């Protein structure tokens, strides 16, 4: 006995929205959900066109051929949307998800683009067969939010891929195995975007029609804020008996009559007033806030003060580096370039040269001045002051170490007649007069 699908499906507006932009298509060999977007009429049209193209390729195929077939249908749906937008630019932005399976009796060919989902219940375990192309799914994948947080995220409506004619928006296509007894759930985000997988799994057992009702009730209990489309299908060992049906927007807008796009303006001539759905879309759409003169505020508040501080600081730093002073370097007197006081713990001086003059050799007055640093106007002035300090140090050294008196001769008299001891041969420094301040107490050593 061949395997076949026994299915039931439902599509509705939900509890908040004013129209149903979801579409669905079911047949013994294909189960598809499409969730349209792009405005009230454009969303209807997008999902209806998507379903039309999928329905158009619902012919016997098997294995990999089914994947090729589905990929071609997606391309044709995108191309059809582009043609419609060219004919009526007000349709720009239209697009549709597509999620579902094609069935050859042995395999599922799984199609997904957007955030509608396909699940498989096998022996009590629920497995998500598709991966959402959505912003919140990306955040979940990165571990930044949980699946539960994704349901409440303000940007949960942002979808990264849809059928919209853009070549980079490619669908996921893969073959999936199939077993007798498997149960498939295919739904739009009116269910899976509001209800956790755990809650869905808890209501998937039992009669398919009863399960369908329970799942829709779950979506209602969660707010019913979006269109709700659900397909429940069992893999059974029986001859195919299911009916071919269109649901949702595709049922209301006959996809086969859309070849003449002249009908499209009829759908758009009277745009409905903003609905809760469109208000929601507007609320969550990406918004670029205009902030006039923001750049000017930045310049005035930050850049100008920084520039002034920078210019003033540079000028001041250059000035400091033209200054010199005398200070200590260890036990010696040194000439410094700059100013002795650091700013923010940053030194603003460097040693130019270290002299041989020791501070301990200086008169107390000069020693104290050197310890406190002696500012001078220039490097030449620094050398002049250092020369003065050298003199003072020499005087102190001379005072502390007076010359010994001449030793009287104790042996033979001078061999040179008339020769007498000459005190001048003994090294002796004649104290130089102090240059500043000149008071005797300043020379205290
Ligand atoms: Mg939706």
Largest beta-sheet characterization: 7 strands, antiparallel
Which structural class matches the secondary elements?
alpha+beta
Return residue spans where pLDDT drops below 50 for at least 5 consecutive residues. Answer: 260-294, 410-441
Please work out how many helical segments DSSP would assign. Answer: 13
Write the layout of secondary structure elements.
Elements: E1 3-12, E2 22-27, E3 30-37, H1 40-56, H2 64-87, E4 95-96, E5 98-103, E6 108-113, E7 117-122, E8 125-128, H3 135-141, H4 147-152, E9 172-176, E10 183-187, H5 189-192, H6 197-201, H7 208-221, E11 228-237, E12 245-248, H8 249-252, H9 264-268, H10 276-284, H11 294-320, E13 324-329, E14 332-338, E15 349-358, H12 364-371, E16 374-376, H13 379-400
Antiparallel strand pairs: 1-11, 2-3, 2-12, 3-4, 3-5, 5-6, 6-9, 7-8, 7-10, 10-11, 13-14, 13-16, 14-15
Helix pairs in contact: 1-2
The protein binds magnesium ion (MG).
Q: Characteristics of this structure?
A:
single chain, 445 residues, alpha+beta, 7-stranded antiparallel sheet, 13 helices, 16 strands, binds magnesium ion
Walk me through what this model shows.
The chain has 13 helices and 16 strands. The strands form 3 sheets. Strands 2, 3, 4, 5, 6, 9 and 12 form a 7-stranded antiparallel β-sheet that branches. Strands 1-11-10-7-8 form a 5-stranded antiparallel β-sheet. Mean pLDDT is 83; it is low at 260-294 and 410-441. It has 445 residues and is of the alpha+beta class. It is rod-shaped and about 140 Å long. A hairpin with a 2-residue loop joins strand 2 (22-27) and strand 3. It is 34% helix and 22% strand. Helix 1 (40-56) packs antiparallel against helix 2 (64-87). The structure holds magnesium ion. Residues 35, 188-190, 226-227 line the site of magnesium ion.
């Amino acid at each position: 006995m061949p395997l076949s699908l026994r299915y039931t499906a439902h599509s509705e507006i939900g509890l908040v929205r004013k129209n149903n932009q979801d579409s669905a298509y079911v047949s013994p060999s294909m189960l598809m959900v499409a969730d349209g977007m792009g405005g009230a009429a454009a969303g209807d049209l997008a999902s209806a066109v998507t379903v039309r193209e999928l329905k158009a390729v619902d012919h016997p195929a098997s294995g990999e051929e089914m994947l090729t077939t589905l990929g071609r249908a997606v391309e044709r749906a995108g191309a059809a949307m582009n043609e419609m937008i060219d004919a009526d630019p007000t349709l720009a932005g239209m697009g549709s998800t597509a999620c579902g399976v094609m069935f050859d009796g042995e395999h599922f060919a799984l199609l997904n683009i957007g955030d509608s989902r396909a699940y498989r219940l096998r022996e009590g375990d629920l497995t998500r067969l598709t991966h959402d192309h959505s912003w919140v799914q990306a955040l979940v994948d990165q571990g930044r939010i949980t699946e539960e947080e994704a349901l409440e995220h303000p940007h949960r409506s942002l979808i990264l891929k849809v059928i919209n004619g853009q070549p980079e928006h490619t669908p996921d296509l893969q073959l999936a195995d199939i077993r007798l007894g498997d149960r498939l759930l295919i739904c739009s985000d009116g269910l899976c975007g509001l209800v956790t997988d755990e809650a869905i799994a808890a209501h998937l057992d039992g009669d398919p029609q009863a399960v369908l009702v329970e799942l829709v009730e779950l979506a209602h209990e969660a707010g019913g804020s979006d269109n709700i489309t659900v397909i429940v299908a069992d893999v059974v060992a029986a001859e195919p008996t299911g009916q071919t049906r269109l649901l949702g927007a595709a049922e209301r807008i006959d996809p086969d009559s859309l070849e003449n796009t002249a009908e499209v303006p009829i759908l758009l001539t009277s745009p409905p007033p903003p609905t809760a759905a469109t208000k929601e879309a507007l609320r969550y759409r990406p918004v670029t806030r205009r902030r006039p003169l923001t750049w000017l505020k930045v310049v005035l508040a930050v850049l100008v003060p920084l520039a002034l501080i920078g210019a003033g600081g540079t000028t001041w730093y250059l000035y400091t580096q033209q200054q010199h002073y005398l200070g200590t370097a260890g036990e010696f007197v040194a000439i410094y370039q700059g100013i002795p006081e650091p700013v923010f713990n940053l030194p603003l001086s460097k040693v130019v040269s270290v002299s041989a003059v020791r501070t301990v050799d200086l008169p107390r007055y000069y020693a104290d001045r050197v310890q406190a640093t002696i500012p001078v106007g220039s490097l030449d002035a620094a050398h002049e002051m250092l020369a003065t300090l050298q003199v003072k140090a020499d005087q102190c050294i001379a005072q502390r170490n007076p010359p010994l008196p001449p030793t009287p001769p104790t042996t033979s008299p001078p061999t040179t007649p008339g020769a007498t001891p000459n005190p001048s041969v003994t090294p002796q420094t004649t104290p130089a007069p102090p240059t500043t301040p000149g008071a005797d107490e300043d020379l205290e050593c």
